[in-house]
Write a structure and sequence with these properties.
single chain, about 400 residues, mainly alpha, Growth Hormone, Chain: A, 2 domains, 14 helices, about 80% helix, about 0% strand, globular, transmembrane, membrane, MFS_Riboflavin_Transporter
């Protein structure tokens, strides 16, 4: 039972919802109550979160090496224990040193528990057959904010922000730790997995070993650019379009469509993307982002333009998450997969940490139209990187 694909996917899906919901999304709800109660600026509160992202980038490669040596079960279990301790530290913080230390702990935990570690665990068990399970797993992760934003909100209302962080810590400890411990042990290869016979040999990677660094560089540029866009707009989209003349209520409900279409994009990939050329898949996911920004970069802030943006933006983000997990597997093979994800994650985490402050500066200095032009150009850079990847390495595969 515990070694079956349905159990593994369900267990990892639950733990991704809980881990993302607590370690990444909880701060969105609890930042202001913390700032008011502790007397700290919201800038400092979010600085702690940025420190977590930077730490995640620093420890990404050591964490990947540990996973490759000791396996996903031990890595994920340790990550859950570390994560619950970091969340507990947040609930007890009364000075700034402890607060920053808590985020440092959570930065380490995130590299041991979130998508990259879960993707690598699936590849450990299923090899190249993990592509479809990776796509399915991303559907679970898309629910994290939908579930944990209300949990954190109502917990804060009922028992305060400290109690809310304790709820987060308990969720990780009680739900994630035992589910991770039930994963198959290191070295086990699942014979009955998705798609093909478990005994069949893996096909040759599409990217030859001597060109691996070049391909990783191009993918890293694409992922870092998209991480910058996603994080910057998560923080600033609503106030930016309000300054363009849109009501706050309209901006709010339009922005909320992003999550719905992010999940829809992942679901469509599951239905129609099984045999899609990985280079084409990457081009489509980043190309949609370029199209999404075109009307906003031109200064359009009408409701139809904003609706079209949210729909296309959400679909693009949903697809890019799958690209991040599945395409490297096809391009580079299963061997060293965790290390490849770590190499791809590091620049993206740095971009994510810098994005809110950098984009706020652009908006303050030049306004939202220039800000959307910047996002449009960053999207073009991402699309250009995937086009260059396809031009350099496509071998007529499907």
């Amino acid at each position: 039972m515990f070694a079956s694909l349905p159990f593994i996917l369900t267990a990892l899906g639950i733990t991704q919802i809980v881990s993302y919901g607590t370690m990444l999304y909880g701060i969105s709800v609890l930042a202001m109550p913390m700032a008011v109660d502790l007397g700290w600026s919201s800038t400092f509160i979010y600085l702690g979160f940025s420190v977590s992202l930077l730490v995640g980038g620093i420890v990404a490669k050591p964490a990947a090496r540990f996973l490759e040596r000791r396996g996903g079960r031990l890595t994920l279990t340790i990550g859950s224990l570390v994560g619950s301790f970091g969340l507990f530290m947040l609930s007890q913080t009364r000075d700034q040193v402890v607060y920053v230390a808590a985020w440092i702990v959570l930065g380490l935990a995130s590299r041991l528990t979130l998508y990259d570690a879960a993707f690598a665990t699936l590849v450990e068990f299923y090899g190249l057959r993990a592509r479809r399970p990776i796509s399915i797993l991303t559907l679970f992760g898309g629910l994290a904010s939908t579930i944990f934003w209300p949990i954190c909100h109502y917990a804060n209302e009922a028992i305060g922000w400290r109690g809310a962080w304790l709820v987060c810590a308990a969720s990780v400890l009680v739900l994630c730790t035992p589910l991770h411990m039930l994963m198959p042990r290191h070295g086990v290869v699942m014979e009955n997995g998705p798609g093909e016979n478990g005994a069949s040999p893996d096909p040759e990677p599409l990217v030859p070993a001597e060109a691996k660094s070049q391909a990783i560089l191009l993918l890293g540029i694409a992922f870092a650019a998209n991480a910058f866009i996603s994080t910057a707009l998560s923080a600033h989209f609503i106030p930016a379009v309000v300054t363009m003349g849109v009501s706050a209520a309209t901006a709010m409900w339009i922005a909320s469509l992003r999550g719905v279409f992010q999940t829809l994009g992942r679901f469509l990939e599951m239905l129609f993307g099984k045999n899609l050329d990985p280079f084409m898949f990457a081009n489509i996911s980043t190309g949609i982002m370029v199209v999404a920004f075109a009307p906003l970069a031109a200064g359009g802030a009408s409701t139809p333009a904003l609706l079209a943006f949210s729909v296309l933006f959400g679909i693009s983000l949903g697809l890019i998450t799958i690209v991040r997990g599945a395409v490297p597997l096809v391009l580079f093979g299963r061997h060293g997969y965790a290390g490849v994800l770590a190499s791809l994650a590091t620049p993206g985490l740095i971009a994510t940490a810098a994005a809110p402050t950098a984009y706020a500066y652009v908006l303050d200095m030049w306004g939202p139209v220039v800000g959307f032009w910047l996002m449009f150009l960053v999207a073009v850079m991402s699309f250009g990187a995937t086009l260059a990847l396809a031009w350099r390495f496509r071998k007529g595969t499907s």
